[in-house]
Amino acid sequence: EGTAGTERAAMRVAEARERVTAVARGGAGLRERLRLYDGWAASYEQDVAELEYRAPHLAAASLAFAFPASPAGARLLDVGCGTGLVARELRRRGFRCLHGVDGSAGMLEQARSTGLYRQLQRCVLGQEPLPAPTEHYDAVTAVGVLSEGQVPSVAVLEMLRVTKPGGFICLTTRSNPSNLSYKAELEALLKRLVKNGACQKVLVQEVEYWERATSEEENTKGTGYISGVVYIYQRCHLLPLEEN
Fold first, then answer.
1. C-alpha to C-alpha distance for 160 and 90, rounded to whole angstroms
2. Pfam family example for this protein (predicted)?
């Protein structure tokens, strides 16, 4: 029974890796990628649990730690909300007024079924602006969406636009080999925004065991896991300067 159980667990992890890799390497076109996400929505939570994906928990814990007041009255936008994993973690930490956007209709359907969001809208960030007025939210999260082949790093400007002065943006990205150039680009942008007076750094947390690696090449330091980062920045009173 013990061996059979271990084999079944290994098989589940292998299958989850396969699906994650298929979506990551999926069609170059946006429409094709969104179609893959629609198809993945039903098994998404099970797959990321097999891979011990910790970003939603880590991001929500970091944001709650940085938040100066009771989060109950705070209005928060969950960008790339997927099935609602981040919302679940935020609710646990006292956030009540949650709005979500995602590019995948299938993912939004799953998120809607949780009852965690007051408002959900379809939005393909990077292609279109966020469906919210300027300086509207006390916090904006983008967990698991800022990486190579997903949302471009410049979309952070849009997230800052909809954040109130004094509000927070909470971002994550991975530190695995194939995402290092994206990570460098994101960090260079954040550095410029701080220099321009658009926001200030509150917390940057590097995490070694972010999730199980999906391949040997992605494996960080031979641990079987990849590492990742949580960034918390506070919006200043100046609007971010547009990128050229």
1. 20
2. Methyltransf_11
154/33 Cα distance (integer angstroms): 20
Helix (H) or strand (E) segment spanning residue 231: strand 225-235
Burial class for 96, CB neighbours closer than 10 Å (0-12, 13-18, 19+) = middle
Q: Which pTM value belongs to this model? A: 0.90
What is the edge-to-edge ordering of all strands in the sheet holding 97-102? 119-122, 97-102, 75-79, 137-142, 163-174, 225-235, 199-212
Structure tokens at 228: 């990742």
Q: Is 31 helix (H, G, I), strand (E, B) or coil?
A: helix
Output the six-digit token pair for 96.
């009540």
Give the CATH number of the domain where residue 213 resides.
3.40.50.150
Residue 156 counted as domain residue = yes
* pLDDT tier at 25, thresholds 50, 70, 90: low
The band of 244, judged by pLDDT with boundaries at 50, 70 and 90, is very low
Cβ-contact 173, 179 below 8 angstroms:
yes
pLDDT at residue 190, as a whole number: 98
Element (H, E) at 232: strand 225-235
Structural domain including 159 reads: 51-235
- Whether 29 is in a domain gets the answer no
